[in-house]
Specification:
Blueprint: H1 2-11, E1 29-34, H2 36-39, E2 46-51, E3 56-62, E4 70-77, E5 86-93, H3 101-109, E6 116-117
Antiparallel strand pairs: 1-2, 1-5, 2-3, 3-4, 4-6
Length: about 130
Amino acid sequence: MLALIIMDVAASKTVWLNFDTMTWNAGDRIACVLNDFLVGNVGNFKHWMLAVDNERVIHCGVVGFKNSKHVRIAIQNREKVSKKMFVRIKCINYGPGVYGIQAVERAMSWERDKPYWYNLFRCNCYH
């Protein structure tokens, strides 16, 4: 029984990928561990992105730090995504999920200059 528990723990170990070199396909959900200065040392919060194609992601960024409940949607090439936002060597590709490319189509239809309300602790993201 103990051997089975040890194997389960070893099998569930997270394999982190580097955001700058990892591969993804349109519709894949990518998550990277947020930098501590953004959320304090209160847990393992992740910054979620949705792959538009093999080089671009769509994601939200905070509109100033005074009002961190509002975000703007951005479509960016891999190298343009903020290097301060998350730990670039601690990322995971969770694959396309249930909606895959449909999630990309929906996200692309949202207005990019409009601020959207977001609560980090309730994780009300739409991908």
